[in-house]
Amino acid sequence: MKKGRLERFLESDVDNILYWVSIFVVVLTAIIYVAQIWFVNYTGRYDLLECRLKTMTGINCPGCGGTRALKSLFKGDIFSSLYYNAFATYGAIIYILFFVTQTLERITKGKIKGIKFKMVYLWIAIGVLVIQYLLKFIIPGYKI
Amino acid sequence: MDNNFNEEPNYTGEVVGEPKESGKAKASMICGIIGVVLCVIGCFCCIGYAGVPLAIIAIVMAMMSKNETDGELTQQAKIGLICGIAALLVLVLGFVIGFVIGFASAFTGA
Fold first, then answer.
1. Does B14 have pLDDT greater than 80?
2. Range of the domain at A11
């Protein structure tokens, strides 16, 4: 019996599943983010975009500076990006490399090999998240 | 004699060895771990909500991987399932705490 497209997708290798899942999640997040910005601009409730932890306690959360880090990265200012949030910078670079090479592999029908996802990338990401968060407390004058 | 039971042929002529790694189970584990990290951040920041679809995908993939392994969850699928559920619980807990603090501050006029 001929298998459906979804069944073939689910039986494919982990990189193919992650490639399509990541596209779905990134597009969904972008749509929610744009809708959120539109809602905030429409209602004037700019406080909704602020970090709740920072608003209530004055302490940065691990994700603080993430949006500024991504903006700096897309402008090409990698040092500012690392300064604001190294986790967001690392995650974005790894994802862009994974996405671009995997897309090229599909376009060139395997002539260019895409990056395979390795668990070590994930452990490094968690390490970077913890270290950059601790550094923001340890280094005096590290304000974002 | 090198007697390797893992590679002994069975009656159908297939080689019985280590079970093939399930893409669904591994994808579930990866999505679950990323989901937990993003949901913890998502308790405070808006962009962390990207963890919600990842957590749901992790749970769905873990449950679907059961079909390949005769109804049993592999180690990777178990990690994916636990991380997916934990991610959603963390986010719900964050919402409840935020709601309680907001409600309390409204009453006290802070």
1. no
2. 1-49
Phi, psi of B73 (to 5 degrees): -85, 135
Helices and strands, counts by H and E, chain B: 3, 0
Q: Are residues A42 and A62 in the same domain?
A: no
pLDDT by residue (tens digit) across B80-89? 999 999 999 9
Q: Rounded to an integer, what distance in angstroms lies between the CA atom of residue A6 and that of residue A32?
A: 25
Q: What are phi and psi of A13, to 5 degrees?
A: -75, 165
Collect all residues from B whose CB is shorter than 8 A from any CB in A.
21, 23-24, 26-27, 30-31, 33-34, 37, 40-50, 53-54, 57, 61, 64, 98, 101
Residues of chain A found within 8 Å of residue B101, distances taken between Cβ atoms: 56
Using a 10 angstrom Cβ sphere, with 0-12 exposed, 13-18 middle and 19 or more buried, the burial of residue B6 is exposed
| Domain count across chain A | 2
Q: Name the residue of chain B whose CA is nearest to A55's CA.
A: B44
Same domain, A36 and A71: no
- Please give the ipTM for the structure prediction: 0.85
The whole-number pLDDT of residue A131 equals 93
